[in-house]
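Human: Note token order:
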Amino acid sequence: NEQIARLNSAIEAAAQRTDNQLVKQLGAIAGIGPVTVASLLAYLPELGQLSRRQIAALAGLAPYNNDSGQHSGKR
């Protein structure tokens, strides 16, 4: 538990030191803390560069049609 608390403190301190606008915008959302912001940016570094639809597809939240020629894939 102490190790987790130290890591959380380090993440919070790093988030406060950054000038990154995306970090500040994500951190301003109610219920989104520094650990969640760090996780989002670690797993989705494309945030801020892709559209919301592209991010949803990248995260696997938006299924897309997998058709090719006469083959019709599952969604």
Notes: DSSP finds four helices and no strands in the chain. The CA atoms of residues 21 and 57 lie 24 Å apart. The helical segments are 2-17, 21-27, 34-43, 52-58.
